[in-house]
Q: What sequence folds into this?
């Protein structure tokens, strides 16, 4: 089996496991949108935004460092130094979490958030529980343990959904119930006696110091990138909370969650399969080809998904969410779909930067995108409401990916990628027209959604056929004798 086929198989396994896990998340959203009021879901959305920021500041650098450097333990890094670096990152994460939730407790009343004390305690517990799970999943991915990853992803999602729904129905329909469900789910890897196994010790002169420098450049330098990218994704809910109130942010966040999860299912799992494989390969050309295939696959999968959700989004929310969470303007769905599409394409360029361990250019790109996003949030939300928040998110990601493309375009084989990318782009417009026609048919909502999904599957089948022909053409070109070429 070739390396590219191994990466694709791993991505499919991650996709299947995350699909089941996302199914539990969707079930939770369906039930709780009929139990919680928009104001209460808005409290949860803001608190989970804080959790996401803390995970990005602390846990995700720890997990991403493990994902990036674990394949090289026993080859370039000694095991003892590696465990020491992870321990120091974990302690830093705990300190950041305590300080941040204390700040949230003090700032919440000024944002109009009630019950700040209980929300802060539940949020701190959710941060710890979700952080443990995130690092455990990263360890399974770094060790290419697909069975362990699948088991943990599905079990944790089931526990989180079950605990959150049970607490909301049996105790109180409040935001704290959902946060405590995430906290209890963190017991899954602990109960399974999950342990970090960094590899066999190997002492190399200068090895430990090189590791520390590499981790400092990676976990420190890329922290700015991760925070800026997260700020573009999550900052809108804080602006909506401050300018429009908890009810508005509750409705907007529920729709965003539904669409984000649908698209994250594909894009995030693909890149999580790509990074460990390429990090363990020191051949620059193979890395270049791997990144190119990741870009082609992401574009081919995400473009029809984004177009379909932009058009079918109102139908999907009418079927899935409660009545109080419906009625958003149609343009919100289009802007959100565009923004999430740009995020996942930008994620490919981010992985290229992470492999190089040089964060300067990608950090400037992400910071520029965040600055534009914050300015647009201030200007547009007052005038256009939640539609302005969705526009600001898409605008921030557009600046980010444009800068990232200029900086890292040479890390990709555009000659190989251009035929497929061009075919997908040209086919996107007629595909969107066909899906729009299906959405207007006098069928039941579920039938129109099924029709749109079937159209998307046909689109992907055509894209796969084009990609296969492109690969065959490249193989013939490589084996053709030089003298016989025109």
A:
């Amino acid at each position: 089996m070739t390396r590219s086929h191994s990466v694709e198989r791993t991505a499919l396994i991650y996709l299947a496991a995350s699909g089941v896990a996302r199914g539990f998340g969707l079930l939770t959203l369906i039930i709780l949108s009929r139990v919680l009021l928009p104001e209460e879901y808005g409290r949860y959305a803001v608190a989970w935004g804080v959790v996401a920021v803390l995970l990005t500041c602390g846990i995700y650098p720890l997990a991403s460092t493990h994902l990036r450097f674990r394949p090289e333990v026993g080859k370039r890094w000694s095991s003892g130094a590696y465990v020491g670096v992870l321990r120091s990152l974990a302690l830093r994460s705990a300190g950041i979490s305590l300080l941040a939730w204390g700040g949230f407790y003090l700032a919440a009343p000024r944002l109009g958030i009630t019950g700040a004390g209980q929300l802060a305690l539940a949020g701190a517990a959710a941060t710890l529980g979700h952080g443990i799970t995130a690092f455990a999943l990263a360890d399974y991915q770094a060790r290419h343990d697909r069975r362990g990853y699948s088991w943990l992803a599905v079990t944790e999602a089931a526990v989180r959904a079950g605990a959150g729904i049970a607490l909301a129905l049996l105790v109180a329909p409040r935001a704290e119930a959902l946060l405590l469900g995430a906290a209890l789910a963190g017991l899954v890897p602990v109960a399974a006696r999950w342990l970090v196994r960094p590899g066999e010790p190997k002492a190399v002169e200068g090895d430990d110091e090189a590791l520390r420098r590499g981790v400092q450049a990676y976990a420190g330098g890329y922290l700015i990138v991760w925070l800026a990218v997260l700020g573009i994704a999550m900052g809108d809910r804080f602006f909506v909370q401050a300018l429009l109130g908890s009810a508005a942010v509750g409705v907007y966040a529920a729709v965003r969650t539904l669409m984000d999860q649908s698209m994250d299912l594909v894009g995030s799992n693909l890149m999580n399969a790509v990074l460990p494989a390429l990090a363990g390969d020191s051949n620059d050309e193979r890395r270049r080809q791997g990144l190119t295939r990741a870009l082609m696959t992401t574009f081919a999968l995400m473009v029809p998904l984004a177009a379909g959700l932009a058009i079918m989004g109102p139908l999907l929310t009418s079927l899935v969410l409660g009545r109080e969470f419906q009625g958003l303007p149609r343009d919100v769905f289009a802007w959100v779909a565009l923004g999430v599409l740009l995020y996942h394409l930008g994620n490919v360029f981010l992985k290229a930067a992470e492999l190089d361990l040089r964060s300067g250019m990608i950090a400037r790109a992400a910071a520029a995108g965040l600055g534009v996003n914050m300015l647009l949030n201030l200007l547009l939300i007052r005038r256009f409401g939640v539609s302005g928040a969705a526009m600001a998110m898409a605008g921030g990601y557009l600046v980010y990916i444009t800068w990232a493309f200029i900086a890292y375009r040479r890390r990709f084989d555009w000659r190989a990628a251009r035929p497929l990318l061009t075919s997908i782009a040209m086919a996107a417009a007629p595909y969107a027209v066909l899906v729009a026609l299906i959405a207007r048919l006098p069928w039941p909502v579920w039938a129109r959604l099924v029709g749109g999904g079937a159209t998307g599957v046909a689109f992907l089948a055509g894209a796969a056929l084009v990609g296969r022909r492109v690969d065959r053409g490249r193989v013939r070109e490589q084996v053709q004798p030089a003298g016989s070429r025109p």
